[in-house]
Amino acid sequence: xxxxxGTRKLPSHLSVxxxxxxxxxxxxxxIGRMLARISDKWTILVVRTLGRGPQRFNALRREVGxxxxxxxxxxxxxxxxxxxxxxxxxxxxxxxVEYALTDLGRDFLRxxxxxxxxxxxxxxxxxAARAFYAKKHENx
Amino acid sequence: xxxxxGTRKLPSHLSVxxxxxxxxxxxxxxIGRMLARISDKWTILVVRTLGRGPQRFNALRREVGxxxxxxxxxxxxxxxxxxxxxxxxxxxxxxxVEYALTDLGRDFLRxxxxxxxxxxxxxxxxxAARAFYAKKHENx
DNA sequence: CAGTATCCTTTCCGATACTG
DNA sequence: CAGTATCGGAAAGGATACTG
Lengths: 140, 140
Fold this sequence. Notes:
2 copies of one chain form a homodimer.
Chain A (H helix, E strand, L loop, with lengths): L24 H14 L2 H10 L4 E2 H8 L4 H13 L3 E6 L5 E6 L1 H34 L4
Antiparallel strand pairs in A: 1-3, 2-3
The structure holds a DNA duplex.
């Protein structure tokens, strides 16, 4: 079941999910389960922020933005469970807990940056599209 | 730009936009709003599926997988509102409605494939990490 | 400081029924 | 075929209080 790709076969610039791939429903559901675990807003933002370096809890919270302590702690717990971050408790008083990306988490940084950069670069296009859509449907 | 913790080495993963640390407060929230609109599981899967070509509603539904008609229609409406897809109604009986990516949607395909490909390529690593985490915390 | 526990409101989402 | 409308349970998520 565990089909770790031992041979580094990086296909091409085109995606392995392209049209030539047999993409049956089980594959799709598998992708769906994985995506459900990692493709939410807070996960992306937290990973992206941790990409700038290890952070302690409250510093991380300030840097991420408007995240509640509940969401940050649960997001970090999920990230730790999925092997993306490590949680290191320093035995001092007051306690310090440092979060850092693992190798897997740093690898994940690549698609995360890809997504975040795209959003930053194209947010004005989205805003324009939304304004256009709103104007077109304002009489409904 | 200045890091208050001295000369910590920032991992300069190349950002397409060249954004490093200039997004502390408002930009981060802006990214968050955008991410909240497009980074959910169904949006990613639907865009990825539409990347293989225009599709009608039920064909799309079968191809995406276990998505309800409610979620598919609302996801498609959001995608249309954000300017990622067009909705074309063919005036025939029975009605046919074709969904296709816009230019913006096709651009979005690149980070979406990046994310989906990464998930496919690394799901076994995530599974392994989860198993390890579960074993480590089984006595709790 | 770094959380957990609890309450409570909001939102999500599936199921079902109905429409052009 | 391609949806919308409505209901109800489940889950997400914020606010507050409390703990080592």
